[in-house]
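Here is one chain, start to finish.
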Amino acid sequence: MLIDILVLLLGLVVLVFAADWFVDGASSIARGFGISPLLIGLTIVGLGTSAPEIMVSSLASLQGNPGLAIGNAIGSNIANMGLILGATALIAPLAFHSSLLKRELPVLMLISIACYVLALDGLSVFDGVLMLLGLVAFLYWLIRAAMVEHKSDILTKEVEAEIPETMPNNKAWIFFVLGLMGLLISSKVLVWAAVNIAHTMGVSDLVIGLTIVALGTSLPELAASIGSVLKGEDDLAVGNVIGSNVYNLLAVYSLPALIAPGPVDATVISRDFPVLLAFTGVLFILGMGLSKAGSINRWEGGGLLSAYLLYQWTIYQSVI
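Its structure:
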């Protein structure tokens, strides 16, 4: 099993770097076609940070391991809110200034609830199509709202500022192709290693997806959020997580429904999805602020991180 673990870790490292190359290349190519930095940031960069989850879940579903795909999508969202926002807030408290960001929070809550309801009777191809249509509707709403508030909203300015610099066209295509190939190869290797580890340990693919794989595929969001908060871009740090969570639910979670439809593990319904909804609810309350300006202070960040570690401990206790 040691070889499988080393291969899995290598796959995760290559996956993260490949996602960066893919996003840099695709962003530069899009700029060359005259697409605005704001649109690139909201679509290519936003979806690009979820590329590891998309590739892993696609291959896992195609290979008959939908539990790994579902665990990856749900586990990544829980990691985004518990581990990433918790750790980021410990480095520096997060303040929510963007009105666009605050409008995304209730949308994320509604999408999370809707995906939970769809899972209750199992995932069907129809459910997958509904989620993809929801993704299209979300992107349309987000782009329209961002264009309206382009001059005044701090989040849109931070998104534009983070777009990778334009590179020569040949170099951009090399980055794009190498990134795409790296995503495909490392995802296949990662899924193979994860399934082997699950079988060796006698645990389900779902457990591996919720833990090791979810943590690994969330590394790009962790790096992006910490990098943003160190530069004082609080809204972008939180926006990365909210956007990634929406994409994970509508783009990643839809894949097992489209490729390998069937019942959802009872544990997902009774434990994992409720935990996801609880984290989303806490993020909604902290972000909206209610009686004060939206923020996540260090104590609240510590609470999020502690809750995430407790959730991981609960999973560990369930399999020993």
